[in-house]
Design goal:
Blueprint lengths: L2 H10 L4 H21 L1 E6 L7 H16 L4 E6 L10 H7 L4 E5 H5 L17 H9 L1 H14 L1 E16 L15 E4 L3 H9 L3 E4 L5 H7 L4 E5 H6 L8 E17 H5 L3 H35 L3 E3 L3 H14 L1 H4 L5 H7 L2
Parallel strand pairs: 1-2, 5-6, 5-7, 8-9
Antiparallel strand pairs: 3-8, 4-7, 4-8
Helix pairs in contact: 3-12, 6-7
The structure holds 3-deoxy-alpha-D-manno-oct-2-ulopyranosonic acid (KDO).
The site of 3-deoxy-alpha-D-manno-oct-2-ulopyranosonic acid has 13 residues, from loops.
Length: 341
Amino acid sequence: MSHTTLQNALRRAGFSTFALVVALGLGFAAPQAVAQTKQVIRISTPAVPDDWHAKMWTVFKENLEKSAPGQFDVQIHLNAALFKQGTEPAAMARGNLEMSAISAQDISKLVPEFSIFTAGYIIRDVEHQQKVFNGPVGEEVFKPVVQKLEVTPLATAYLGTRQVMLREVKDVKTPADLKGVKLRMPASKEWLFLGEALGATPMPLAYGEVYLALQTGTIDGQDNPLPSVRAAKFYEVSKTIVMTSHLVDAVFVAISSKFFNALKPEQQQKVRLAAEAAARYNNANRVKDEAELVDFFKAQGLKVVTPDVAAFRKTVQEKYMKSDIAKTWPKGLLERINAVR
Ligand code: KDO
């Protein structure tokens, strides 16, 4: 029934104009008013549903619903369904996306000095990573991120320690053994340089295309932390894991600054706390997974190779120190990172 037909019917039934205004006003305007007061938070991530850094967004949503009931409408888009991998920071700056978990490589495009965190064998382990980003170094390195990317990092999620995986059985001891190996890397200059520094031939490809590329042999291998390999099932199409441990990786739970700055201070605090809770959930689960997954992959029939990690570290570090990438690192930052205990 249309608004006018309903109005006429009610009038015929003896409702006064005042009563009509109240009844129709409440009936038609109330849901709209509720919808308007809820702030929509769109989240986009390439993470697959079974991955901890996909599930952490549900933790975020539930935490925020508890601390700020009815204030936010959190919409989670996985599998890069909303924005392509790596395009999220620009989308957040333009106001087309509110939140994502962004990589150091994404940040480095606009903040070149951040590339220090894309280099192999700099962050030692998860404890070192969390202390670096949650301490004075983090405070310093996130400042230009807020200024230049117009996104605000809220929490550091441990993505895991990246290992090399190959689709064939191969004994890899040093970088020389990766010569000619087509190693898939995410598509950016910093990622490709890491693949090259490991001794391989890097090939850019989006995360969502890796499984098929391994299956068909378009690539010889890829690098990712073990929990990501389990969640995306790359182990089904791989035969060797080489435990290079070359990058202790992070993704930064970040929010569009335009959106964040427009929130009330108490809402900002609630969003921040929910992001921290989500990262903690992710981190604990990934650490637990990493301790168990080598055995799981062995049980799946994969060969687990322990390479000469010292040889990898030496080669990778030398390549970085000679590169243009290292020229962008602020003086003394590497030493300050190393000094964090
Ligand atoms: C990947 O594409 O290999 C990578 O691990 C890179 C990370 O920075 C991050 O984008 C991650 O994929 C996705 O979140 C999917 O796990």
